[in-house]
Amino acid sequence: MKRKKHLMFIFGLLFIINLLGYCVIQYQLEREASIEIEPKSLTEVNNEEDVNVTLLRSKDWPEGKFYHGVQYDVSILNDSSHQLTAWEITIPVPKKAKVTDSWNIVYKCEDDILTASPVDYNMIVEPHSQQTFGFILKTKEIEDIESLHAHFIPIYHSSDYPLFWANVAFTCILFISAIISIIVELRTASLRSQNLMDKHIIIQTMKTFSNFVDAKDPYTRGHSARVAYYSRELAKKLHLPDRDVELIYYIALLHDIGKVLIPDDILNKPGRLSPEEREIIETHTTKGAGILKDFDAISGIADGARYHHEHYDGSGYPAKLSGEDIPFLARIICVADSYDAMSSDRCYRPRLDNDTILDELMTNSGKQFDPEIVTAMLDLIKETNFFEVIEE
């Protein structure tokens, strides 16, 4: 679930970044931009694209005694990769000159300034193309016009921006990654489902074995399941990793499996055991480890069976281990196992009262039990009513 949330967060963040990229492009498209051109000059567009305007006096002729007719031709060269629109060219003309004719433009002439604008059919100057227009002046003097001012609005497209193609590539990568993630998630979900089913089968099998062990003694029915539960709660209280919390439950379920090889008459003997019988009972730890030695699907399961009767002071069995030499999970099972034994009726005695159980735990802290685990057990008893028999 955490992995799924992380993926959703990452994809959400990438989507927002991608969206911001498109917003930047849209801003660039909508922002007012213009090109201003002085006569016979080149203006760079994006550092590599040219727009140029030229004006030539192509012919002149006399009109009456005092006037001349003069024809001017204007050429707009768009060598850029953008369309140009809404162009407007202002041209200073000789004083008191009058426009007698024009083509390809709409014009007005005021204060010796002619302003030329496009007509409907030449509103847009296409990339890498040229448009021309012209006009005829009736004037007293023939002059070359040496200055003009041109104004254009370039039409930009998304594809004109490198950022657009970067965003397209990014979108494709994001889309492909999302598809791959969905496929992986579906496959992972299928594997998780299969793993849960396998886990359920394993747990049911282990519970069946633990029930089989407990069935040999009517007084210990449910003992293995309760020890597994107590062990798991202790592991949580001791802040063990989730993996160890899960493992100890399975290990504790089969901690007494060696008892299947102990004769029933010894196992269920109501009176005191003889030294020989006690030796036989104690072999259930090594016999259990022998049964589980090849069960490598659950790490440490054989150690749980072998060492759960080792004592912290070294007085336990079968190996007389002490302190930190005893596997930590086995030390936890030892406390859980002893607690359940004290709080349950047995063939050789009734359950102990609550005060006696607490006293036994505290008295044997540092002797039979790891003091750290005893402290955790006492806290659990206070927090949760462990004196009520719990079966899962």
The amount of beta strand, in percent, is: 15-25%
Total DSSP helices = 11
The share of residues in helices is 40-55%
Task: Give the structural class.
Answer: alpha+beta
Q: Trace the largest sheet across and list its strands.
A: 1-10-5-8-7
Mean pLDDT: 84
Rough outline: rod-shaped
Q: What does this protein look like?
A:
The chain is of the alpha+beta class. The chain has three domains: 2-29 and 163-186; 35-155, Immunoglobulin-like, CATH 2.60.40.290; 216-383, Hypothetical protein af1432 (Orthogonal Bundle). It is built from eleven helices and ten strands. The protein has helices at residues 2-30, 162-215, 223-237, 242-253, 264-267, 275-282, 284-292, 301-307, 328-342, 354-363, 371-383, and strands at residues 35-37, 43-45, 49-63, 67-79, 83-92, 98-103, 106-110, 113-117, 129-139, 149-155. It has a five-stranded antiparallel beta sheet, with no helix packed on it. Strands 2-3-4-9-6 form a five-stranded antiparallel beta sheet, with no helix packed on it. Helix 3 (223-237) packs antiparallel against helix 4 (242-253). The longest helix has 54 residues, at 162-215. Residues 40-49 have low confidence and may be disordered.
Summarize the structure.
The protein has helices at residues 2-30, 162-215, 223-237, 242-253, 264-267, 275-282, 284-292, 301-307, 328-342, 354-363, 371-383, and strands spanning 35-37, 43-45, 49-63, 67-79, 83-92, 98-103, 106-110, 113-117, 129-139, 149-155. By secondary structure, it is an alpha+beta fold.
Topology:
Blueprint: H1 2-30, E1 35-37, E2 43-45, E3 49-63, E4 67-79, E5 83-92, E6 98-103, E7 106-110, E8 113-117, E9 129-139, E10 149-155, H2 162-215, H3 223-237, H4 242-253, H5 264-267, H6 275-282, H7 284-292, H8 301-307, H9 328-342, H10 354-363, H11 371-383
Antiparallel strand pairs: 1-10, 2-3, 3-4, 4-9, 5-8, 5-10, 6-9, 7-8
Helix pairs in contact: 1-2, 3-4, 3-9, 4-8, 7-8, 8-9
